[in-house]
Fold this protein.
Amino acid sequence: MHTRVAIVTGASRGIGKRTALELAHRGYGIVASARALERDGRLPGSLAETRAEIEAAGARVVVVRADMSRRDEASALVSTAVETFGRLDAVVNNAALTHGGNVPVTELEFEDWHAQFDTNLHGPLALIQAAVPHLSRARGVIVNLSSGAGDLKLAVEGPLLYSVGYAASKAALNRLANALAGELMALGIAIVNVDPGSVSTERLERRLDTLSPEHRARLVSMEVPAVAIGHLVSCGTALEWTGRLLRAADFVRSQGLGTAVPDSARI
């Protein structure tokens, strides 16, 4: 039986990969999932590369192809964790569908809307449902990756900068965690949402020239949300923040976690 075990979804690149590595360095066995094992040809990074880097760090890892829009594949990650490691201590719901449906509301296709909700809300819920019996034994932690897109904002005339389905599904994920917090607290489980902020991921690096100078000044490294999540999962006091939405850079600063955060980062 491994000492502690975490599931990290969307772990082929970006925040998910960085979080899986952070938890591996903290002594966790890792179940890392994404929709494909090898590179998809558009962006750097793959589950196979994540596995190699975690193993090179001396940690144990299992990689699983899983589409979080399919509830059966999401919940099956728990079976993999328990069958492989004998326990489950943490779930990091990072996988998200960020594109599609960025159109005027009269042109919105419900296929795009449902795809956003299936990946960003229903899949995480299925994973949480399957994980709870095991997390209750470990007094474990659930972390959901949120987004500033889910915030209620002052109306400004013009189109959304992101899809309405993405914004609405992330807002729903925030409320889901808040609504579940009391029930899960009684089982000793913390559930916390983390808004990573504007993060310099591989995807964003490809379009840096389209960002305003103000936006570029707010960018933080992938280390910032990864360290915030690593601390929440491993600190033993995550119930202090259960049911809340934390801004990663603010949390890193407040906890003195030692990761550089630009003063201009608005999280």
